[in-house]
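Batch manifest, entry 17 of 40.
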Amino acid sequence: MLDLTEEEAQTSISKNTFIEEMAKYMLDTMDYIPVVGHIKGLVQKRNGNKEAAVHAFKSATRTSIILAAGAVGFFVGGPTVAAVCGTLTGIQWDLAMIIPSHGQEIKGVPKVIDEPKNLNAWIDGTVRVASDGITGVCGGKMSAMAKATKRFVVQPEVSRSPMSIPDALMYESETDDSA
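Output type: structure tokens
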């Protein structure tokens, strides 16, 4: 059996606590990733952890909606409009969550309005506004990249000869109006 000094024991506890906190942070971050958070919510619900399931579903859905708003904003007016759409959608989501939670879930800008002297509310609100804007721009960029990618198209004028089938396959840009 190992005999640890007091200092070694404290260091070991600190390392374990750090690792546990990092693991918790990483698992919590997964809640906010669309699809991943939804799957995590399903697993949590299946295992009987309703509170964690609801958190994962809400977080992943919030991010999905902000990404979609950013995609729309990007096509309407570019990255700036995508950021504004993402930010406003995030604020709207935060406002909309107050009523079903009976005032228990107040986050972001509504928290700043509710507690204007609370420094943590200001920090949380600022971070949420900035991250929602960035998420909106990411949603716009992702949709623009998807639109710009080339897709596999089979042309209708296919020759009957088996040797000419590869000639009928081509790549066509989404922006080509002839398709």
